[in-house]
Design brief:
Elements: H1 2-8, H2 13-105, H3 116-121
């Protein structure tokens, strides 16, 4: 065994073995450093992605709230217009009923044509 070690570790081979050992240690150290930098980059990318997601979620929530407010305002306008339409329909129905009652109250309801009294009942 000593002979084998003495043959391997001669004055000519020891510097080469030390250089090879230093290269191996340097390579391992470089690989570890690259792994740590890669992990750091991955962490930064994940952080940036989560910040971007949070920003867009906040923007989406803000726009959704704005849309909900606009929908509420629009529904209120629709209700108001619907009330006005119903009021106009009721007023027209009441006016028609009053005109029919006034027409029925006039003498000569079975006569043909329009008399002056009936013409006055028509809306202008």
């Amino acid at each position: 065994m000593q002979a084998l070690l003495a043959a391997v570790f001669t004055k000519r081979t020891v510097p080469w073995i030390l250089v090879a050992l230093l290269f191996a240690v340097g390579g391992i150290s470089a690989r570890i450093a690259v792994g740590k930098v890669s992990d750091l980059i991955d962490a930064r990318v994940a952080s940036a992605k989560s910040e971007c997601d949070a920003l867009w979620k906040a923007e989406l929530a803000e726009k959704s709230l704005e849309v909900a407010r606009l929908e509420l305002a629009l529904s209120e306008q629709v209700k108001q217009v619907d009330r006005k339409i119903k009021a106009a329909e009721n007023a027209a129905r009441d006016q028609l009923e009053q005109m029919e009652k006034a027409n029925a109250a006039l003498p000569g309801g079975d006569a043909c044509g329009l008399g002056a009294d009936r013409v006055r009942l028509l809306p202008r």
